[in-house]
């Protein structure tokens, strides 16, 4: 998740423009090889084993390497070798910006140092296996924008960013989170979680962005905004909230109930004083993450 937050860091420092960042981050999926692909390339895992681990990630909030170890598809030394082989994604992003002429090497060196220092980033291969590092990135993200949120919200957003990477693509940048009391919606799906803690969560996007988002998530080529696209978006939100509920039960002994996803009729979605929105920019457009707790 380093590249996503490094991109936001560069924007906050006005080191690059949103257009330059979007162009550069769109190359991440082409240059950053996934762990499963590396494992097959080195002969550590078969394609069917990789597929099984990817499927299990839709049922458990665990990293690819963690599940592969549990299933004995990888040994510890093999996982370490794969992690070392992976190029840190925020370095790839920085190099791309230099190649584009958006940054000089000297500027990149200084920005990376400040970014690593501010976020207390450790060795990349160790950090890839450390959930507390990404949790700290999310916490710093809200603190940087002076938006106080509770631990439930931090846990939720951390998981959502991870699930966007897992199931939609890592080539996104989270923009400034903003407190809101209402949102003018396009196509918006929401889901209520209730129990000891109560949440309302939603994803809003234009129909054309919804087509691209659903195509990536469902791994199908949709060419029109229809009921299949809508069902794919509902499935993503329901899958994510289901994983969040499992985590809350296992880690915090907090039981949550999920209402069925629903379409917000709009054009205005009303929120209480705890509501906020995070725009997330993909090369194909912007999705808006809405959260009320």
Total discrete domains: 2
Kindly state the number of beta strands. 10
Q: End-to-end span in angstroms?
A: 24 Å
Give the uncertain stretches in residue-range form: 124-129
Strand percent estimate: 15-25%
How helical, in percent, are the residues? 40-55%
How would you describe the shape? globular
Radius of gyration (Å) = 19 Å
Order of helices and strands: HHHHHHHHHHHHEEEEEHHEEEEE
H/I helix tally: 14
Mean pLDDT value: 86
Give a short account of the largest sheet.
Answer: 8 strands, antiparallel
Structural class: alpha+beta
Describe this structure in words.
The chain is α+β, with helices and mostly antiparallel strands. The protein folds into two domains: 2-154, no CATH class; 174-292, CheC-like (Chemotaxis protein chec), CATH 3.40.1550. The protein has 14 helices and ten strands. The strands form two sheets. Strands 1, 2, 4, 5, 6, 7, 9 and 10 form an eight-stranded antiparallel beta sheet that branches. A two-stranded antiparallel ribbon has the order 3-8. A hairpin with a 3-residue loop joins strand 4 (187-195) and strand 5. Mean pLDDT is 86; it is low at 124-129.
């Amino acid at each position: 998740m380093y590249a996503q937050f490094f991109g936001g860091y560069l924007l906050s420092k006005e080191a690059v423009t949103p257009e330059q960042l979007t162009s550069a981050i769109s190359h991440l999926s082409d240059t950053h090889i996934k762990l499963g692909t590396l494992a097959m390339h080195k002969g550590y895992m078969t394609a069917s084993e990789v597929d099984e681990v990817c499927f299990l990630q839709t049922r458990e909030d665990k990293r690819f390497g963690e599940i592969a170890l549990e299933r004995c598809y990888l040994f510890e030394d093999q996982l370490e070798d794969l992690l070392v082989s992976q190029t840190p994604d925020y370095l790839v992003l920085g190099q791309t910006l230099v190649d584009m002429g958006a940054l000089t090497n000297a500027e990149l060196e200084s920005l990376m140092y400040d970014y690593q220092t501010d976020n207390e980033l450790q060795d990349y291969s160790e950090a890839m296996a450390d959930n507390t590092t990404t949790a700290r990135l999310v916490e710093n993200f809200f603190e940087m924008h002076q938006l106080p949120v509770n631990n439930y919200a931090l846990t939720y957003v951390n998981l959502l960013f991870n699930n966007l990477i897992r199931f939609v693509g890592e080539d996104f940048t989270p923009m400034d989170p903003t407190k809101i009391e209402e949102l003018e919606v396009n196509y918006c799906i929401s889901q209520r979680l209730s129990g000891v803690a109560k949440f309302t969560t939603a994803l809003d996007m234009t129909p054309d962005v919804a087509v691209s988002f659903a195509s990536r998530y469902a791994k199908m080529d949709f060419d029109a905004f229809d009921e299949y696209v809508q069902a794919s978006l509902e499935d993503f939100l329901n899958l994510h909230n289901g994983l969040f509920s499992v985590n809350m039960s296992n880690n915090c002994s907090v039981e949550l109930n999920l209402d069925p996803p629903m379409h917000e009729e709009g054009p205005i979605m009303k929120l209480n004083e705890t509501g906020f929105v995070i725009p997330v920019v993909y090369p194909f457009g912007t999705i808006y993450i809405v959260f009320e707790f």
